Amino acid sequence: MKDQIKDYYVGVDVGGTKIQASLVSDTGSVLSSNRRSTPRNCGSDATLDAIEESIKELLQHQNQSLDQLSGVGIAVPGVVCQDTGYVVVTPNMNLSGIELGQIMRERLGGVRVEIGNDCNLGTLGECWLGSGRSSEFAVGIFVGTGIGAGIVRNRRLISGAGQVAGEIGHIVLQIPCDSWRVQLKIKKSGRGRKYVKQANFARRTIRVDASKKSQKLPLGLTQCGCGNYGCFESIASRSAVENYIREAIALGAKSSITDYNGGKLDIIKSGSIAKALKSGDEVVTLIVDYVSKVIGYACLTVRHLIDPDVIMLGGGMIEACQKYMMPTIESVVSSDRLQAAPCNRRVLVSSLGDSAVVLGAVALVRSSDASAFDQICESIPKYPRLLMLADEVIHIDDVAYTTDMLITPDGEILTRSKFPKNEPDGFRMKDIENAVQGGTDLLVLATPKAEEINLSGKCHDYLNRRGIDYRILPLRDAVQLYNSVTVRRSAVFHFSIK
After folding, report:
1. Close Cβ partners of 377 (under 8 Å, ≥ 6 residues apart)
2. pLDDT tens-digit readout, 24-72
3. What are the backbone angles phi and psi of residue 443, rounded to the nearest 5°?
4. Which pLDDT score is estimated for 261?
5. H or E element in which residue 239 lies
6. CB 286 within 8 A of CB 273
7. Of 35 and 93, more confident
8. What's the pLDDT band for 373 if we cut at 50, 70, 90?
9. Which is more confidently placed, 214 or 366?
10. Is the pLDDT of residue 278 over 60?
């Protein structure tokens, strides 16, 4: 007889700087999380200890025990053999060559443990509860210090023969060789299509040492951390933006970026870049626009290669700068002249933030059992039943609510009494963000004057770029809709307009 499925899971995101452990319910509600710094300049045992302690402290804080868990999912930034839990390589950590799955099962008393790549699991999490939740075929691209990705089809990760499928950061976008014209030292003569030989044509090349061979490569070609040249990651990650900004300033360009980054340029944070963009800094604006175009063309490359219905963009750079980057990315993608059959393909922003990876880690624990994972994807939390017995009064479990409130995708009720200033409709961005955090298909926006109100462009773009449907309705209609739908849902209720 098959054991009864337990209610709780732990997802762990092991990053180069932090370890996040989250306790997650069967329906994807993040019940509690803790974070600690990742041990540095030490052996692998210190990192293993930190992972174990994070899990046990999380459970202790929630009065849970290991034997109450259905499983633990752990995400690491590297190449992982998912079947065995063996970590092939973690370039920026000390877990390379470690049997992480087996070791953690022993340390956790035999609890089921699954190991996966962080970007793969971030994509899987988004396909469970985030922007890819209604997709059949999705690609997640995460732009941060580097660029990672994941591919999910029919709720299953595609990892490839060598477990490196989806390493989009290392597709080559700059070809590491001179064009045939440069090699033949010819160029257009200015008379139509005729070419002429140029005896003194300057070759824009540099000498590098690769595989112990002297090669000539075009100037401006960038070397990636993986060792190859011209990788997507090397020209469009946050690290690439840092390099461009430093180079521009070294060449005499004026920028205010140091004012927003503590006067330093060694590591330029995504938040600092966003502040510089907001201030209209010319150097940062031009560089981010260039990088956004590169990301847009990378999305086209993905579309032309495997044609997913959803491409999700996430990571620290996108989260901080999406307001400035997404219009350019969308413009490049929409400029595609290759005709396709009628379809509903979209490029969206990831919507789960820091929770995407831990939720994906939990989904991984279920993914080896197809029926169980399908069940968890289709299950929804228990939502409150709303009753409206009088105008501008909503009853929930015998409690009357007459002040503005939010109902989260987990069914939690949050109230507030302070009306936002300078926003007569009351639907401020903070309300929208809080209401949809955790994954929702439908956002119900309720107000007595629904016919007179339109959602602000900023709020509309936020929801549209995450594939979230919304309705603005009078209070009674909103209550009826909220109670009747069977999808994951959330709501913002405003009882008066001031």
Report:
1. 128, 133, 155, 363
2. 988 888 989 999 988 888 889 999 999 999 999 999 998 888 988 989 9
3. -110, 120
4. 92
5. helix 238-250
6. no
7. 35
8. low
9. 366
10. yes
CA dist 44 → 19, 78, 100 (Å): 14, 15, 10
Phi-psi region of 77 (alpha: psi -120 to 50; beta: other; left: phi over 0): beta
Q: Which amino acid does the sequence have at 445? A: L
CA dihedral (137, 13, 364, 491) in degrees, to 10, reads -60
Query: All domains of the chain, ordered by start, with CATH?
Result: 8-130+352-378 (3.30.420.40), 135-174+228-346 (3.30.420.40), 175-221 (no CATH), 387-493 (3.40.1230.10)
pTM of the model: 0.84
Q: What is the pLDDT of residues 208-232, one digit of tens each?
A: 444 444 455 566 677 887 788 888 9
CA neighbor of 51 nearest in space, from 90, 81, 7, 25: 90
Distance of CA 441 to the CA centre of its chain: 18
Which DSSP letter does residue 171 get?
S
Question: What percentage of residues in the chain have a pLDDT greater than 70?
Answer: 87
- Rounded Cα–Cα distance for residues 36 and 24 (Å): 18
Of 111, 78, 75, give the one whose Cα is nearest residue 97: 78
pLDDT of residue 200: 43
CA–CA separation, 246 and 268 (whole Å): 10
DSSP-based three-state secondary structure for 261: coil
Farthest CA pair distance, the chain = 89
Q: CA-to-CA distance for 83 and 328, rounded, in angstroms?
A: 40
* DSSP-H helix ranges across 94-226: 100-107, 118-129, 180-184
Q: Is 198 left (phi over 0), alpha (psi -120 to 50) or beta?
A: beta
User: Which among 107, 213, 210, 119 is positioned nearest to 170, based on CA atoms?
Assistant: 119
Does residue 457 sit in helix, strand or coil? helix
